[in-house]
Amino acid sequence: MDFDYDPLSNLSELDQLIYQGLGAASMAWTPRPAGEFDSQLAKEIGEDLVAEVRRITGYQMDLVPPSRDPDEVEAWLRRP
């Protein structure tokens, strides 16, 4: 089992910010809620938010490099 796997590693920076914000907001309760966290519903909310941000801003995944790492940007620019 790979414990170093980052589920956000294949998302754009925008996607990561939205999903991280949802996660942080879900813990902003005092006292914190008990029970089972519906990760599927949280994922759907994140997907809806990402889609709306892209629609409103005209943001398109294929026009933005996946990261700011110079090597990754260079590889992204060379893609077919």
Biggest sheet descriptor: none
Q: Number of helical runs?
A: 3
Low-pLDDT segments, ≥5 res: none
Q: What is the approximate shape?
A: elongated
Our measurement of the CA-to-CA distance between the termini, rounded to an integer number of angstroms, reads: 33 Å
Tally of distinct domains: 1
The count of DSSP E runs of length 2 or more, i.e. the number of strands, is 0
Structural class: mainly alpha
Q: Mean pLDDT, rounded to whole units?
A: 75
Q: Order of helices and strands, N to C?
A: HHH
Percent of residues in β-strands: under 5%
* Radius of gyration computed on alpha carbons: 16 Å
Helix content: 40-55%
Summarize the structure.
This protein has helices at 13-26, 39-57, 70-77. It has 80 residues and is an all-alpha fold. The protein starts with 12 loop residues before the first helix and ends with a helix.
How would you characterize the overall build of this protein?
The chain is mainly alpha-helical and 80 residues long. The chain has one domain (13-77). It contains three helices and no strands. The chain has helices at 13-26, 39-57, 70-77. Helix 1 packs across helix 2 (39-57). The longest helix has 19 residues, at 39-57.
